[in-house]
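Dear colleagues,

As part of the handover before I leave the project, I'm documenting each prediction I ran so the next person doesn't have to rerun anything. This entry is a single chain, and its sequence is reproduced below.
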Amino acid sequence: MEKVECPDCGKKFDTSDAMNQHRNDKHLKQQATVVVKKPKLAIGKILTYGIIIFVIAGVGYALIWAITGSSSNTGLGSPGSTHIHQDLKMYINGEAIDFSQSKYQKPHVNAHVHMEGGDGDIIHKHTTGVTMGFFLKSILITFDRNCLTIDTGEKYCNDGDKTLKFYVNGKPNADWEKYDLKDLDKFLISYGSESDEAIQQQLSSITDKAKSQ
């Protein structure tokens, strides 16, 4: 009589029933009890992911703090500690700077002080302690009694009859970048060799829009 061979292990049996009983006991039950193990996440990867999340959270917090927070080192209050307005004009060699451009407008600048709504004549001060220097730096402009550097990188310094001038409410001011913005102030920053008459025309061009805010 021909033997029946187990397809799993090759063992031979006299009958098919015996072979099937063998397969059921030795092979099929063992296959059914195989435990599928889930892959474990390496500790190193967990630490790496944790560090990445921590760094991202830290950077996000720092950005939020820089835009909306306050710092005792700068002398600034918190956004919303005041809400006052000023009028501003800036001229370089007789040409007015157009602050209505989007790069000078909110939301591209910080919450402490900014221009907004496409209006390039009015400064909106929302934080106590904001100086003229702080405002100008927020739109990437720096100035002091010697030089004015605008956001394009162009620098204008006192040179012969070309001088930098700062007027507050129609009068020359010696505080320059340290001047603390006050309600309804009218500012003129002018560089060039203008005559007194030309300066008066520039002063007259400053708007009164802050009064209506």
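Residues 1-36 form one domain. DSSP finds four helices and twelve strands in the chain.

All the best with the project,
I.
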